[in-house]
Amino acid sequence: MTNSQTAPSAVKILIAGGFGVGKTTLVGAVSEVAPLRTEEYLTQASIGVDSLAGVGEKNTTTVALDFGRITVSPELVVYLFGTPGQERFWFMWNDLVNGALGGVVIADTRRLETSFASIDFFESRDIPFVVAINCFHGHNTRSTEEIRAALDLDPHVPLLIGDVRQRPFGRDVLLALVDHLMSLPAAVG
Amino acid sequence: MILDRCRRPAAVAEVAAGLDLPVSVTKILLADLVGQGLLLARAPLTVARASGGADMGLLAAVRDGLRRL
Known about the structure:
B: mainly alpha
């Protein structure tokens, strides 16, 4: 049995970006445990093509969620959630963003467009985020200004360029997010 | 098995990964245990900007922890 008074606080940070940009890699680089994977079933009734059957057939797909953990202190644990890359699974994010501190959008300069939707997602929900340009393929021919313009990024959103496989870069990205959060004026409610 | 994993506070996702079950199935199992008074569930911290954002003390603690990585 746990006691809510002694239980550590847990904060969530979301790691987003297009398919294959390095979300799980970043989680793995900074997590104290190997990224854990959990799956969720998506069940969708589809209309049977055989009209004689008259019943929809059930199609089940799974969507994976990778996450990691950083125990900051006995009182505080940070969870990192790598969000599903496929756009059609984004409704799952609504559960995830509940209580999330902020987000990291990972982008690859060779296909920045795959991360547009992640940026829109955070912006539309007023969730603070930073952008990490992943250069593990070694190609980055674009300047920070070009990338900002291409992503149509607000000037106040931090942008970092580095290799998400490297723990120091992952740490810097998360620190940039926390600094960004601390610099934001508190919403007057 | 679930109770064993929850001796220490754990995220639902962690329990699900440990049991190798989908999150939705895990939630149902957890809800049953909460209903029987065997588990305590806690809502996520309220850190949404709409409700004033995370408090500075919490952010400072996270920052200090990350710096030690």
